[in-house]
Write a structure and sequence with these properties.
The structure holds 2 protein chains of 2 kinds.
Chain A lengths: L1 E3 L2 H6 L26 E4 L5 E4 L28 E4 H15 L3 E5 L15 H5 L4 E3 L4 H13 L3 E5 L10 H8 L2 H4 L9 E6 L14 H4 L6 E4 L3 H13 L4 E6 L6 E4 L12 E4 L4 E5 L3 H14 L4 E5 L2 E3 L3 H11 L2 E8 L4 H13 L8 E5 L8 H7 L3 H11 L2
Parallel strand pairs in A: 5-6, 5-7, 7-8, 8-10, 9-10, 13-14, 13-16, 16-17
Antiparallel strand pairs in A: 1-2, 2-3, 4-11, 9-15, 12-14
Chain B lengths: L8 H13 L22 H8 L5 H12 L5 H9 L6 E4 L2 E4 L38 H26 L13 H10 L5 E3 L5 H7 L3 H9 L32 H14 L6 E6 L6 H13 L3 E7 L2 E2 L2 E2 H4 L6 H6 L3 E6 L3 H18 L3 E6 L18 H10 L2 H11 L5 H24 L18 H16 L11
Parallel strand pairs in B: 3-4, 4-5, 5-9, 8-9
Antiparallel strand pairs in B: 1-2, 6-7
Classes of the chains: A alpha/beta, B alpha/beta.
Organism (chain B): Lithocarpus litseifolius
Catalytic activity (chain B): N(6)-[(R)-lipoyl]-L-lysyl-[protein] + 3-methyl-2-oxobutanoate + H(+) = N(6)-[(R)-S(8)-2-methylpropanoyldihydrolipoyl]-L-lysyl-[protein] + CO2
Main location (chain B): mitochondrion
Chain lengths: 402, 482
């Protein structure tokens, strides 16, 4: 069972941001009529439940949960509960135990434990050479990671915020993505580059970047985005084990999601999308935080009689066109919901890919909901309106299904 | 005693009283982080403002908030307040610093430039009183013959580019000593991260003339599978990391490799090369900084050859070259005559030992001159005088200087010279011929090695390309195997 515990906790995990933000209202994602309850409950199988203050009754039939055998279902195993950032850490720790060449480098990852606590405790356990605090020079410590990877280590480079990795673009594009190819396969770069990105709560334009847009063109890299503790741990492990350079996108607001994950070891596939909610009427493709806005909208849609199929694409490069294609062939209508900006985002590429490959199966043009082409404003109200809200998703589905 | 924010008159008076006692207090720096509160002592005029009931409240508030932060270590604070003479020392974050009442600026340029280590004079004779590392006959002869090989290779491949047989080339003329002598002082286990003007290092390590030709002429046997421009050699067998055209990006790579070597406790170091121009890149500064902080065994070798394409060093930096930057980052450095093979050998030999046993980075600035053009795309006579080029080429040639030295030791002769030169020329011409005739890399190599295994989109794109080639064979080169 996954829970969004609210902005207060989400932000307290990040000590680097101002404590003023703790006092913001936490229920942006709910529509006005739903702001009664104290928090939102998102089940791991994708159902969204509004938990009211007084009532203990869960409105379980609001989102019809079909018998779900998807990877996210952990109902049969006991497992253990943890938050997303802890899941990332668990995955990281397991891989560091398993393989002595795995190491971590980034700003404040060592004794401080990382600005989102993903590496907390690891420096004490593995030493501060294996969990390395670097000076502030993103291009250079990414370069360092590439050099270490070519020499036989498996580094994980943490960007304190994905936006800072723009400084590392030169190394990522010209070296990370290319050296395996230009060296004729002689040198491989099994590096993982990860960090939080996306629009947070009033973090300002520079801290609200969606770097997947900029990186998606680089040949030679893979990109994945995690959205639940289950897939966060699985994707982290898969990324570390991969021989290719992988960029793992986390989201600033999702670090405190809680879920029960299996005790036994598991690894997610880097190239597969996740079926969140099977349906018949429309295919909604999304990833990262927007998954939750979509599931929120799905609740409303079900009430209105629609049956949306929600897929968390997870693999941003390459796209899992197999899963996506099967869905399009079934529903014939596609809605893409993303946080990227309209121009040049993941949605734009996905629209092109689907149109190219499955044009014959579409009954209506693809609708892509994205953020506007503006720097993310600081003011709370303005920021809220640059991010796709569930109400817009509902309207778009209604429009598609006319 | 921590002062609180309440602006009660009582407190203001107390402060005024306290400040009154200490009239002329030298303000120390105010570090405002939460765990390092330091006192911000106020001078008399400020105390007056604070005590003045008519003074603007906002001004008072500012002053008050400044006074709010006090050192958490009172005894230390007391010492710094009481001791008003010159020998005051304070333990700042970062270490103890001695104060001085005399305002002095560090000069932007030293009175004398850093001296340059050299052991062979212009005539190839050992300078008296030089301390150098001994080089035996076998090593010296190999060094010399490799320098000639490098020179000959440069001449022939440059000509081949001018004849249109390869698309691009860049020479190492004038920098043969740096290439060969540094390589000679390293071991085969040291990881080399070149810029692009260091093929001599690869040559020293055993890369064959045929392999060089294969890369430049881009045939199937190229280790890079035809993906990189000429001179972008790479060989994991020889621990020589594939050249990437971007300037100075290899410097952080070298630090990363050194980090890996240190973690694995290997008896080897990372070595990286760059030019005077490369030292302006951000990666240079961060790499040196990182290497110093990490205590990583890296040797940074700067080939200061005076020119970055058309930019002379006077337009590149205003510091005393690159060597002085080492100390700015806490890196031990040395300046060496880049045209003196023995001096370079000695310096790198010493640096190698220091880097590995002491776990530290070393910066070596080798002063030299880029005799050739930047590359085949450049005509340097456009921005520098032919006389200047000629002078360096003839009077300061590192190969000639070294030859004079080995001849003086009777390890070499003019017969050996002509014999070797003609032999290596023949070998090179043969290698070029073979390389030119060899098969080109296949179409499949466009799509392999992008990832460990080609994903579906690349399979699709390959299929599409093959389809297109099949349909329009005349639009595609006929000598590329499908």
């Amino acid at each position: 069972m996954a829970t969004i515990v609210g902005a207060a906790t989400a932000l307290s995990a990040s000590k680097s941001f101002d404590s003023r933000k703790l006092h913001l209202p936490s229920r942006r994602s709910l529509s006005v009529s739903e702001r009664k309850g104290s928090f939102l409950v998102v089940r791991s199988d994708g159902s969204v439940v509004h938990k009211a203050h007084r009532a203990q009754i869960l409105i379980t039939n609001a989102v019809a949960t079909k018998a779900d055998s998807s990877a996210a279902s952990t109902a049969s195993k006991p497992g253990h509960e943890l938050l997303l950032f802890e899941a990332l850490r668990e995955g990281l720790e397991e891989e560091m135990d398993r393989d002595p060449t795995v190491c971590v480098m980034g700003e404040d990852v060592g004794h401080y434990g990382g600005s989102y606590k993903v590496t907390k405790g690891l420096a004490t356990k593995y030493g501060d050479l294996r969990v390395l605090d670097t000076p502030i020079a993103e291009n250079s410590f990414t370069g360092m990671g590439i050099g270490a990877a070519m020499t036989g280590l498996r580094p994980i480079v943490e960007g304190m915020n994905m936006g800072f990795l723009l400084l590392a673009f030169n190394q990522i594009s010209n070296n990370c993505g290319m050296l395996h190819y230009t060296s004729g396969g002689q040198f491989k770069i099994p590096i993982v580059i990860r960090g939080p990105g996306g629009v947070g709560r009033q973090l300002g334009a520079e801290h609200s970047q969606r770097l997947e847009s900029y990186f998606q063109s680089i040949p030679g890299i893979q990109m994945v985005a995690c959205s639940t503790p289950y897939n966060a741990k699985g994707l982290m492990k898969a990324a570390i084990r991969s021989e290719n350079p992988v960029i793992l996108f986390e989201h600033v607001l999702l670090y405190n999601l809680k879920e029960r994950i299996p005790d036994e070891e598991y690894v997610c596939s880097l190239e597969e999308a996740e079926m969140v909610r099977p349906g018949e009427h429309v295919t909604i493709l999304t990833y990262s935080r927007m998954r939750y806005h979509v599931m929120q909208a799905a609740k409303t849609l079900v009430n209105k009689g629609y049956d949306p199929e929600v897929i968390d694409i997870r693999s941003l490069k390459p796209f899992d066109l197999h899963t996506i294609g099967n869905s399009v062939k079934k529903t014939h209508r596609v809605l893409i919901v993303e946080e990227c900006m309209r121009t040049g985002g993941i949605g734009a590429s996905l629209t092109a890919a689907i149109t190219e490959n499955f044009n014959d199966y579409l009954d209506a043009p693809i609708i892509c909901l994205s953020s506007q082409d503006v720097p993310t404003p600081y003011a709370g109200t303005l920021e809220e309106w640059t991010v796709v809200q569930p109400a817009q998703i509902v309207t778009a589905v209604e429009q598609l299904c006319q | 005693m921590a002062l609180c924010m309440r602006k009660s008159p009582k407190l203001i008076n107390h402060l005024k009283y306290r400040m009154g006692l200490f009239d002329m207090i030298t303000p120390s720096s105010w570090n405002s982080t939460s765990s390092h509160h330091q006192e911000f002592p106020v001078t008399a005029p400020i105390a007056h403002t604070l005590g003045n009931p008519d003074a603007d409240l906002s001004v008072k508030a500012t002053l008050f908030s400044a006074c709010r932060f006090k050192s958490t270590k009172p005894e230390k604070q007391l010492n710094s307040l009481n001791d008003a003479d010159d020998n005051k020392v304070l333990d700042f974050p970062g270490g103890k610093v001695r104060f001085s009442p005399k305002m002095t600026f560090i000069s932007e340029s030293p009175e004398e430039r850093t001296q340059c280590y050299r052991v062979l004079d212009d005539n190839g004779q050992l300078i008296l009183g030089s301390n150098l590392v001994q080089v035996g006959k076998e090593l010296a002869v190999k060094m010399y013959t490799d320098m000639i090989t490098l020179q000959t290779m440069d001449t022939l491949f440059y000509e081949a580019q001018r004849q249109g047989r390869i698309s691009f080339y860049l020479t190492t003329i004038g920098e043969e000593a740096i290439n060969i002598a540094t390589a000679a002082a390293l071991t085969a286990d040291d990881h080399v991260f070149p810029q692009y003007r260091e093929p001599g290092v690869l040559l020293w390590r055993g890369f064959t003339l045929q392999e060089f030709a294969n890369q430049c002429f881009v045939n199937k046997a190229d280790h890079g599978k035809g993906r990189q421009m000429p001179i972008h050699y790479g060989s994991n067998k020889h621990n020589y990391f594939t050249v990437s055209s971007t300037i100075a990006t290899q410097l952080p790579h070298a630090v990363g490799a050194a980090y890996a070597l240190k973690m694995d406790r290997k008896d080897a170091c990372a070595v990286t090369y760059f030019g005077d121009g490369g030292s302006s890149e951000g990666d240079f500064h961060a790499a040196l900084n990182f290497a110093a902080v990490l205590e990583a065994p890296v040797i940074f070798i700067c080939r200061n050859n005076g020119w970055a394409i058309s930019t002379p060093t006077s337009d590149q930096f205003r510091s005393d070259g690159v060597v002085v930057r080492g100390s700015a980052y806490g890196v031990r450095s040395i300046r060496v005559d880049g045209n003196d093979a023995l001096a370079i050998y000695g310096a790198v030999h010493a640096a190698h030992k220091m880097a590995i046993t002491e776990h530290r980075p070393i910066l070596i600035e080798a002063l030299t001159y880029r005799v050739g053009h930047h590359s085949t795309s450049d005509d340097s006579t456009k921005y520098r005088s032919v006389d200047e080029i000629e002078w360096w080429k003839l009077a300061q040639d590192p190969v000639t200087r070294f030859r004079k030295w080995i001849e003086s030791k009777d390890w070499w002769s003019s017969e050996a010279e002509s014999e070797f030169r003609s032999s290596v020329r023949q070998q090179l011409l043969h290698a070029i011929q073979v390389a030119e005739k060899a098969e080109k890399p296949p179409v499949a190599d466009i799509f392999t090695d992008v990832y460990d295994a080609p994903p579906s989109n690349l399979h699709e794109q390959e299929k599409l390309l093959r389809e297109t080639i099949r349909r329009h064979p005349r639009d595609y080169p006929s000598d590329v195997p499908a």
